[in-house]
């Protein structure tokens, strides 16, 4: 098992050129729409904003204008992008919100294909570009996105909806930059990742190998995962689009690690999803989540005793203080979520001081990825979201 995991991760991150023949096979018939094109397909105009963070990253922020209620910021999960909120068309949350007149903004964290830019660093040449984890997403990316939205709309607050990592970063924001608690009226947290004590069985071997993987990647100068030029990325895209791809990619990997729900995530939807997912992030980001899982502490990045003493004045990294996250939060969990288990959401619920609603989706098979891609979210999820927006909008 250990050898297999190392091989898979090596393929994930190694930039290797495919033969021309295979590249043509992989890319010839694939037409991938970007977010504005997907919005236009659903009958909505879309604005684009380039947002520059305090540390120089250039983030892409999309805006579908509306006049109803406060502006809403949607934040994607790890290895994902803003596309996740719209790729299911009329069955997507972004389209449902836009169709009802809401003013929606869709952010992209540093490192994915929309936000793979910097004012002075080259992501292909400068390893320091990839020296970030979810800490920087929360401390730098979110403030820049929020300020841009408020400055453009004249609003003093916004609502937010996050999926998976898209919630972790709000806890970092509220704990480290508490002034932003006043600028977030309500966070609706879908699969609210923070504590990862009870992750499903398949994650165990991976988590145990995190320290070894970190050392290996560091010694080989590997800083990015899912580089779109990597051998694994191109083969993954090719494989998952083949007839056998559903059995291998979905049933063999995705359902095993994230939760199986064949009815809500049937074979027909995956070719659409695989055009946009997965996306890139830093190795450091994955290692940070691995540390959270292994130590059972939602803490700052662990650099080792020597550097920890310099950065934190402590041999171990301090935990993020959830009691400082003063924004109102709605926590929505799923019984079949193999990543964000209801037991872990219960811990988060006890830690956060301003949880206004907690609910488990009323479907036993509902999983981590159902929150963004389920066929019938108009039944299971959207009523909860719209009810919360109505109850807590200003």
Automatic annotation (TrEMBL):
InterPro entries: AB_hydrolase_fold, AB_hydrolase_lipase, Lipase_euk. Residues 36-88 form the Partial AB-hydrolase lipase domain. One of its GO terms (molecular function) is hydrolase activity, acting on ester bonds. Keywords: Glycoprotein, Hydrolase, Lipid degradation, Lipid metabolism, Signal. GO terms for biological process: lipid catabolic process. The keyword Glycoprotein applies. SUPFAM superfamilies: alpha/beta-Hydrolases. This is Lipase. It comes from Parnassius mnemosyne.
């Amino acid at each position: 098992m250990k050898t297999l995991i190392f091989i898979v991760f090596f393929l994930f991150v190694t930039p290797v050129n495919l033969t021309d023949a295979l590249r043509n096979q992989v890319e010839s018939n694939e037409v991938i729409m970007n977010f504005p094109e997907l919005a236009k397909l659903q009958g909505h105009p879309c604005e684009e904003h380039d947002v520059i963070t305090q540390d120089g990253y250039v983030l892409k922020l999309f805006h579908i204008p509306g006049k109803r209620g406060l502006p809403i910021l949607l934040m994607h999960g790890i290895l994902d992008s803003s596309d996740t909120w719209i790729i299911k068309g009329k069955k997507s949350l972004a389209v449902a919100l836009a169709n009802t007149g809401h003013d929606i903004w869709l952010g992209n964290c540093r490192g994915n294909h929309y936000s793979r830019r910097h004012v002075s660093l080259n992501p292909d040449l400068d390893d320091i570009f990839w020296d970030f984890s979810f800490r920087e997403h929360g401390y730098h990316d979110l403030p820049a996105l929020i300020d841009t939205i408020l400055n453009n709309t004249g609003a003093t607050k916004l609502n937010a909806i996050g999926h998976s990592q898209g919630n972790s970063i709000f806890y970092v924001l509220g704990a480290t930059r508490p002034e932003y608690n006043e600028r977030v009226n309500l966070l609706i947290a879908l699969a609210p990742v923070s504590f990862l004590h009870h992750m499903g069985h398949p994650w165990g071997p991976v988590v145990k190998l995190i320290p070894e993987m970190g050392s290996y990647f560091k010694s080989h100068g590997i800083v990015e995962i899912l580089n779109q030029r990597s051998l694994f990325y191109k083969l993954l895209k090719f494989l998952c689009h083949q007839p056998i791809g559903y059995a291998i990619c979905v049933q063999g990997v995705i359902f095993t690690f994230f939760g199986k729900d064949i009815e809500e995530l049937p074979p027909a939807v995956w070719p659409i999803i695989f055009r946009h997912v997965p996306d890139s992030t830093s190795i450091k980001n994955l290692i940070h989540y691995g540390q959270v899982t292994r130590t059972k502490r939602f803490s700052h990045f662990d650099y080792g005793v020597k550097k920890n003493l310099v950065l934190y004045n402590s041999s171990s990294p301090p935990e993020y203080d959830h009691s400082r996250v003063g924004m109102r939060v709605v926590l929505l969990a799923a019984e079949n979520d193999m990543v964000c288990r209801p037991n872990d959401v219960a811990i988060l619920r006890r830690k956060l001081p301003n949880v206004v609603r907690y609910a488990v989706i009323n479907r036993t098979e509902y999983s981590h990825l159902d929150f963004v891609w389920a066929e019938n979210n108009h039944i299971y999820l959207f009523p909860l979201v719209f009810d919360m927006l109505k109850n807590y909008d200003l």
